């Protein structure tokens, strides 16, 4: 929620001060602002995000309802995480991405 943005920023700075090797944000899709803040506050750290199971299920529910194509939406979700500032993405779509991407 927007009200906890300051808390997320404080947590990122605290993690850095404790010697974190990586900054991980989860859930990913609802925290693009936190991913962007992490990239700003920790420019020398890898920024990772984790797509949680609910996000994965939400995408599959939209496909099942005929709203969009699975491959298109899976890639859009991953690309939006990168646009927010993540350089590492943990995704439930990893196996599908391996099939969909050219060798």
Describe the protein's architecture and organization.
By secondary structure, the protein is mainly alpha-helical. Helices cover 55% and strands 10% of the residues. It has helices spanning 5-17, 32-41, 53-64, 70-84, 94-100, and strands at residues 23-25, 47-50, 88-90. It has a three-stranded parallel sheet. The radius of gyration is 15 Å and the shape is globular. The mean pLDDT is 95.
Notable traits:
103 residues, mainly alpha
List the helices and strands and how they pair.
Elements: H1 5-17, E1 23-25, H2 32-41, E2 47-50, H3 53-64, H4 70-84, E3 88-90, H5 94-100
Parallel strand pairs: 1-2, 2-3
Helix pairs in contact: 1-2
- Which stretches are poorly predicted, pLDDT < 50 over at least 5 residues? none
Widest sheet: strand ordering: 1-2-3
Alpha carbon gap, first and last residue:
40 Å
Query: Based on helices, strands and strand pairing, what is the structural class?
Result: mainly alpha
Assign a percent range to the helix content: 55-70%
Residues in β-strands, percent: 5-15%
Number of strands: 3
Mean pLDDT: 95
With helices defined by DSSP (H or I, 4 residues minimum), what is the helix count? 5
* SSE string: HEHEHHEH
Question: Quick gist of this model?
Answer:
This protein has about 100 residues and is mainly α.
């Amino acid at each position: 929620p927007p009200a906890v943005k300051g808390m997320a920023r404080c947590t990122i700075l605290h993690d850095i001060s404790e010697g974190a090797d990586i900054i991980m944000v989860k859930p990913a899709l609802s925290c693009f602002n936190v991913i962007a803040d992490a990239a700003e506050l920790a420019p020398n750290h890898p920024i990772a995000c984790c797509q949680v199971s609910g996000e994965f299920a939400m995408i599959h529910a939209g496909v099942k309802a005929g709203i969009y194509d699975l491959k298109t939406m899976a890639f859009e979700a991953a690309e939006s995480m990168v646009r927010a500032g993540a350089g590492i993405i943990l995704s439930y779509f990893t196996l599908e991405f391996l099939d969909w991407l050219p060798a």
